[in-house]
Each structure stands twice: as structure tokens, then as C-alpha cells.
Design a protein that fits this description.
By secondary structure, the protein is of the alpha+beta class. Helices cover 26% and strands 19% of the residues.
């Protein structure tokens, strides 16, 4: 369990359960890290001995392996797999028929015969050696940063991943330009006595490794569930009618936000039956130019040339298509049909009562006490 937690496991409840309840709870909790994949064939597949498995490692590194020894493997098992050189330790994220579909989705170039092998389920000695290798990663990263700085290399080593048998280490670095790190590899190999592999990562992967809070107030998507980064362009912002402000569209990595692609398919599907907004509408009152679009309500907003584009007139998409058809036949409508757009949801009016009431308003309702008349000073009672 501790090895699962050391490789990015965030579900504490899943780690604290007993071994008897682990399989039952595992069916409800899909996974304990962002590297997990959802097995939508779990309920219909009865394959106890899978031919292929998907194994996850640190960061976003995954790979596919063959179960040549016909082991009974399931998701969550820690296994020893073939590596170059030696062997590596990873956690199975998918097993069974779903792996072939995952290969097709990931566009894996190799054939089944070219896949590496699963040697065995990890023994306690393998896990202990794996834990020892994991414990050295942070110290190795700090030392390697100092070495790169001493050599004057314009690069930042962001993370280090040791292989399960401690014979190899992957150094993840970020750099703005091409870096000649051949001298750095020699120094690292002489210092740590291991095989060195340098792997460059982008700004998105670096932001996902560090983490943080986004402008939405939630934890960054790349540090929670996004593992496969998709290219984001300004086309996504234009389709969704988002202002092209670089400061608002850029995330903490300096690139366009990944969430711009989340609703893009819905907007593109809604725009399929919209008329071409580049066509100018001609009426007897003058030309009308498209300014903005309310996609989900089917409203296009136009501004007339006489008003300098300041007066916004809402026109339904059907009416826009009809006017364009009339213009093709050299006909001019009298005017753009202005409609009143009803609000689908009831508007709530909020009032601020701060400062409107007096702090002594409850004291006014109390009856006033009658003052007793005091006798004069020279008065003497008999």
C-alpha cells in the first residue's frame, strides 16, 4: 500500500482498507491517481488471465506489456516488467480486453510481438528495493540541479524517476532552447553510478507536476486528471465567443488553458445549423453587421451601420437565414425583426441591508421610565 501512495496515490481511504475489502472498494473507486484509466468493459469481461496489460509509472509514463507467463493479473497489482537494462516496477492500470482498445486510442505504433514482457508479480524484496530507489529521487534531483548550474546549462531539472532495480534513472528537464548536456550526463553517471536518460518535458507537464490553483478556484486539471495533453488554439476561444485576452486565456504554464477544449464540441455542434455570420445583412434601413452570437439560445446580435455598430439588435438565426436568402434574390426587407428575449430562469433580486437600519432600533420600543422628582436641597422631612 505504501508503494501505491509513493507513486501519486491520492485516495487515502483506499489505502487504509483491509485486504478483504480492497477488491470490493476497488470496484467503486476507479483509481487513486490521475494515471488511472476507466475500464468500461469491467462488467462484461470475464478474462482472469489477460494477454495484455497497461502499466503506469511515475508522472504520465505508461506502457503496454504482454503477460507471457499467464499470470492472474488485475488492476492495482504491482508487477515487475521488462526494462532496458534490468527490470522495472509498475502498477497495472488496465487489464483484459480494454487494453487493445486503449492501444488503438493511444495510437501505439508497435505490434503485439514487439511489446515487452511482464516477468512476475512484485515480491516483497522487489518492493523494498523499489521504495529505497524512490527515497533517493528528491536528493538526486537537488544534486543534479546544482551540477547543471555549475556547468552553466540553461535548463531546469524538474523531477527524477529511478527504475525499480535502481540501475537507471530518468531525469525530466525543461528548457527554452536546445541544450548540450553530454558533459552533464558524464558527471551524473560518475556521481550516482547509474545509467542516465534525459527526457525533455513541456510547460504543461511541468505545471502538472508542480500543481497549483487555477483562476476557477479549483486545483489545476493537469495535476489532477489530465494526462494526455491536446493542442489548444485560439480557434476554441473564437468559437465560444471568448474575448481574446492573453492574460485571461493563459494558464499558469503560460500556454492556453486546457479547459478551452472542454465545451468546444458542444459549441461546434450547436453552430452547425447557424447561417454564415460573415455575410452582411442588407435592409431598407441600411446594412447590418454581425457583432456577437448567443449560441445556445440561437440569437445573433447585429449592429446597424448608421449607429456605428453600437445599437445591438437581437435577431433569431432563422430570421438571419431568411434575410440572406432574400438578399440573394436582390430583395431587401423593411427592417431587422427585433425580438424580446425572455429569461429562462427567474431573476433573483439581492438587496444589501447593511447600514440601512439603526443599531438602537430595538431600544425605541421599550417604555420610557418615569423620572422621580428629587426634593430640593433645603427640603427637610418632618
Amino acid at each position: 500500500m505504501e508503494s501505491l501512495k509513493a507513486r501519486g496515490c491520492c485516495n487515502e481511504k483506499q489505502l487504509e482498507v483491509n485486504e478483504d475489502n480492497l477488491e470490493r472498494i476497488d470496484s467503486y473507486f476507479n483509481g487513486c491517481s490521475k494515471l488511472e484509466s476507466y475500464n468500461w468493459l469491467r462488467e462484461v469481461s470475464d478474462m482472469d488471465i489477460p494477454e495484455l496489460v497497461e502499466v503506469r509509472f511515475k508522472n504520465t509514463r505508461k506502457s503496454f506489456y504482454r503477460n507471457v507467463n499467464e499470470l492472474r493479473l488485475k488492476r492495482g497489482d504491482i508487477v515487475a516488467v521488462e526494462a532496458s537494462p534490468g527490470h522495472d516496477i509498475g502498477i497495472i492500470s488496465l487489464a483484459g480486453e480494454i487494453v487493445e482498445k486503449q492501444q488503438y486510442r493511444a495510437k501505439y505504433p508497435g505490434s503485439r510481438e514487439e511489446l515487452r514482457k511482464v516477468y512476475r508479480k512484485a515480491k516483497q524484496a522487489d518492493i523494498d528495493k523499489w521504495k529505497e530507489a524512490i527515497s533517493k529521487e528528491e536528493e538526486t534531483m537537488l544534486q543534479s540541479r546544482k551540477m547543471a548550474h555549475d556547468l552553466g546549462l540553461n535548463m531546469k531539472i524538474g523531477d527524477v524517476e529511478y527504475q525499480g532495480d535502481s540501475t537507471k534513472a530518468i531525469f525530466y528537464y525543461i528548457a527554452d532552447e536546445r541544450v548540450d548536456f553530454r558533459e552533464l550526463i558524464k558527471v551524473l553517471a560518475e556521481t550516482f553510478r547509474i545509467r542516465i536518460e534525459m527526457k525533455q518535458i513541456g510547460a504543461r507537464q511541468e505545471a502538472g507536476r508542480i500543481g497549483g490553483i487555477g483562476t476557477c478556484g479549483r486545483e489545476l486539471c493537469c495535476s489532477t486528471f489530465v494526462s494526455n495533453f491536446v493542442s489548444v488554439s485560439t480557434h476554441s476561444a473564437r468559437v465560444q465567443e471568448v474575448a481574446l485576452n492573453p492574460q485571461k486565456l493563459a494558464g499558469q504554464c503560460g500556454k492556453l488553458k486546457c479547459c478551452l477544449n472542454y465545451e468546444l464540441a458542444g459549441y461546434e455542434d450547436a453552430r452547425k445549423h447557424f447561417p454564415d455570420t460573415r455575410i452582411i445583412l442588407k435592409t431598407r434601413q441600411g446594412n447590418a453587421y454581425h457583432l456577437k452570437t448567443d449560441v445556445f439560445r440561437g440569437i445573433l446580435w447585429y449592429g446597424t451601420g448608421d449607429a456605428g455598430g453600437q445599437a445591438l439588435i437581437p435577431v433569431p438565426a432563422e430570421r438571419v437565414a431568411a434575410i440572406q436568402e432574400m438578399n440573394r434574390k436582390d430583395k431587401l426587407p423593411d427592417e431587422l425583426v427585433e425580438i424580446s428575449i425572455p429569461d429562462s430562469a427567474e431573476r433573483l433580486e439581492y438587496t444589501n441591508g447593511a447600514g440601512e437600519e439603526s443599531l438602537t432600533r430595538f431600544e425605541k420600543d421599550r417604555p420610557k421610565k418615569k423620572k422621580k422628582k428629587r426634593p430640593p436641597r433645603n427640603f427637610r422631612r418632618k
